[in-house]
C-alpha cells in the first residue's frame, strides 16, 4: 500500500502551470540572491534582483515586466540567509498545495486570474506606494499572491480545518484572515507602510474575486447581505454592458 504524504501527492498531481511557476520562482530567486554581489561589486551593474524587483526607477525606465516579475524574486533586503530560504520554500509549499486545489476545483484560468492577476493589482498598489512615499527601495516576494490564493481557498472550503503549529486545529477562515489581520496590525504599528498597503491590496483582491467572479459568498455570514448586493450590482452592470455591446453591433 502506498502511504505517500499529502505533500508528495501534491507534487505528483500538481498541474504544469504550478510546477512551472514554482520552478521559475526557485531558479530566479536563487540566481538573483547569489549573483547580487557579482553584478553590483564586480560588473558595477544593477543585479537581476534589482532589475526584476518592482522599483519606481524600473517602471520609469519602462521595465513593465516588473509589475509581475517581482513575484519570482525574494526581497533584496534579506540577502542570502536561512530565513529567506525557509520563507521561499514555505511559499512554494503553499503554492503547490493551495494552487493545485484551486485548479482542480475551478480550473487553470482562475488560478491565473488569482495569482498573476492579483500580483498585477498588488504591483500597481506597490508602485503607487513607492511613488508617493518617494522610496527608492524595491518591492519583491510572492507573499501577497499567496495570501490571495489562501483567501480564495477559504471561500471554496469554508469549514476546512488546519493544524496550527501541527497541534491546534483551527478553521481555515479564522487562521487565514487572522494571520492577515495580525500582519496588517504589525506593519501599520511598525511603520512598514509598503507592506501594509500591499497586504491590504491582496486582502481586497482575494476577497472580491470569489464574490464578483465566482459569485459565491464568504464564510462570514454577517457580510452576506453586503456580498449579495455586490453580486446583484455586478450582474446589473454586466447585463447593461452586454446590451450596449449588442446595440453597437446591430448598428
- The largest beta-sheet arranges its strands as 1-2
Segments where pLDDT lies below 50 for 5+ residues?
A: 1-8
Largest sheet report: 2 strands, antiparallel
Give the N-to-C terminal Cα separation: 66 Å
Quaternary form: single chain
Task: Give the % helix.
Answer: over 70%
Subcellular location: Membrane
Protein name: Peptidase S54 rhomboid domain-containing protein
Pfam families: Rhomboid
InterPro entries: Peptidase_S54_rhomboid_dom, Rhomboid-like_sf
Q: In short, what is this structure?
A:
72% of the residues lie in helices and 3% in strands.
Descriptive tags:
251 residues, mainly alpha, Rhomboid-like fold, two-stranded antiparallel ribbon, disordered N terminus, membrane, Rhomboid-like_sf, Peptidase_S54_rhomboid_dom, Peptidase S54 rhomboid domain-containing protein, transmembrane
Q: What report would you give on this structure?
A:
- With 251 residues, the protein is mainly alpha-helical.
- It folds into 2 domains: 6-219, Rhomboid-like fold (Up-down Bundle); 227-251.
- It has helices at 6-13, 16-42, 48-52, 56-60, 66-69, 82-106, 108-133, 143-156, 172-189, 193-214, 224-250; strands at residues 161-164, 168-171.
- A two-stranded antiparallel sheet has the order 1-2.
- Mean pLDDT is 85; it is low at 1-8.
Topology:
Elements lengths: L5 H8 L2 H27 L5 H5 L3 H5 L5 H4 L12 H25 L1 H26 L9 H14 L4 E4 L3 E4 H18 L3 H22 L9 H27 L1
Helix pairs in contact: 1-6, 2-6, 6-7, 6-8, 7-8, 7-10, 8-9, 8-10, 9-10
